[in-house]
Design goal:
Blueprint lengths: L2 H8 L6 E3 L7 E3 L22 E5 L5 E6 L10 E6 L3 H15 L4 H15 L13 H9 L1
Antiparallel strand pairs: 1-2, 3-4, 4-5
Helix pairs in contact: 2-3
C-alpha cells in the first residue's frame, strides 16, 4: 500500500494522536520515529518508508534508529545504533546518517539529539566561597 493511501487512512484517527485541549488547533503525535512530534505526513514515522528516530539510551548516549527496505519482515524493519562516545561523535553520526537518507529531517534530528545530550549532562554544583570580612582578614594578616 502506498504511503499516501496509508496517510489518508490514519490521518483522522489513530492511537498516537494528541489534541491540544487548551484552545489551540495544534495536533501532536506520539508515534515512534517522529522527530518533531507534529501530526503531518512529512514527520510521520508510521507511513513513510524512510524514517529517522533519535531517542535516549538510558543516562548516557543516544539511540539512532532508521527504517530499512525490508518492509515485508516487520521485526527487521528498524535498524538501531547506540551512540555513546560523546556529543561531537553523536552529532556527527546523526548528521551523516540523515545527510543522504532524509536530508529534510536533518535539522530536527540534530535538535533532538542535542536536547537529549544536554539533558543527560551532569551539572556541577557551584561552591560558593564565604565573604571575607574585616574581622576575619585581621588575624590572618597579623599572624
Amino acid at each position: 500500500m502506498s504511503a499516501d493511501l496509508q496517510w489518508l487512512v490514519i490521518r483522522k484517527n489513530n492511537s498516537f494522536l494528541v489534541h491540544n485541549k487548551v484552545g489551540g488547533r495544534d495536533i501532536f503525535s506520539k508515534e515512534a520515529n517522529n522527530l518533531t512530534n507534529t501530526h503531518s505526513f512529512k514527520a510521520s514515522g508510521l507511513v513513510n518508508s524512510k524514517t529517522v528516530g533519535v531517542s535516549a539510551n538510558g543516562n548516557k548516549g543516544l539511540v539512532l534508529s532508521t527504517k530499512n527496505r525490508n518492509q515485508s519482515r516487520p521485526r527487521q524493519v528498524q535498524t538501531s545504533v547506540k551512540l555513546t562516545r560523546g556529543a561531537r561523535h553523536a552529532n556527527k553520526a546523526v548528521k551523516g546518517a540523515t545527510s543522504k537518507y532524509r536530508q529534510d529531517l536533518q535539522r530536527a534530528a540534530l535538535a533532538r539529539a542535542s536536547a537529549i545530550l544536554r539533558s543527560q549532562k551532569v551539572k556541577a554544583k557551584k561552591v560558593r566561597s564565604g565573604r571575607k570580612t574585616a574581622k576575619a582578614a585581621k588575624p590572618a594578616a597579623t599572624a
